[in-house]
Fold this sequence. Notes:
By secondary structure, this protein is of the alpha+beta class. It is built from 5 helices and 5 strands; from the N terminus they run H-H-H-E-E-H-E-E-E-H.
Amino acid sequence: MAKQKEIAHKYGDWEDSYNKVAKLLQALQSCCPETICELKALPYYDGDLMVRDYSIFDKVFWAFPSCVKAFKHYKPFVSVDDTHLYGKYGGVLLIVVVQDDNSNILPVTFAIVESESTESWSFFLTNLR
C-alpha cells in the first residue's frame, strides 16, 4: 500500500494518467505532425444528468509515422494481437506488428480499448487506414 501511495504521489494516480491522454496525443502530434491519433471519449453522467465539459476515456489509437513508413520494407504479412492490461481500470492493448527478413519485429499501430469486442476491433481496424 505504501508503494502504491508513493508511486501515485510521484507520478499521479490512475485518474491523473487517464486525464492526460488527450494532452499526450496533442504533444505527439505537435512533435511529429504525421502521427495518427484517434481518441474516443464518452459523455460523463451524474445519475441521469450529463455533466458538461467532462468526458470519460473510452478508446485510443495511435501510429507513429516512422513505423508506418517502414512498413513497406517488411514482409507483406501482419500480425494482429492483443494483451490484457491489469490494474484499476484494466482494458486491452491491441497491436499490429510486422517482421523483416532477419526476424526483427516492428510494431506499427497501437490501441487501448475497454475489452475484446466487435466494436473495439472495428475501431482499431478502421483506424489502420
